[in-house]
Amino acid sequence: MTAVIFLANYSLDRITKQLALKYLSGREPIRLLNDLLIFRYAENTGAFLSMGTDWNVYVKYLLLLIIPIIICIIGILHLMFREGKVYRVAIISCIIGGGIGNLADRLFNEFRVIDFINVGIGNLRTGILNVADLSVTFGCIVLLVFEGLESSRARKVDT
Fold it and tell me: What is the pLDDT of residue 124?
């Protein structure tokens, strides 16, 4: 299951980034649903909301590439050999699949991560994202919700 979910997230990220490069790069944004969803090509050389774009190259390699790769490897090993809860395996595989998608961009594209999704209403908008960002973000949110529910159930059993 780990491999299937990981590969699905990673592959969807790679495919959508290639489509964005082919159909959005150098073109006007595509606006849908009264600008609720805007597809626009962008390249991010930093992390979340371009944080770290101006960092020294050695700091970027350490904080945006090496440490995240190590964390992903540890996460995969944990899922394969230690994690017994199916929901955690599924959710963490989703998070790691998305993380590896952006790490691949950084590693093979001179730190340029392809972003193309912007969501919002009026001036209340997200940054420009990609499928990997969505996998990581929603995976983290779902993991927190499930962990909270499990913790709540455990407290009820203890009382």
Answer: 95
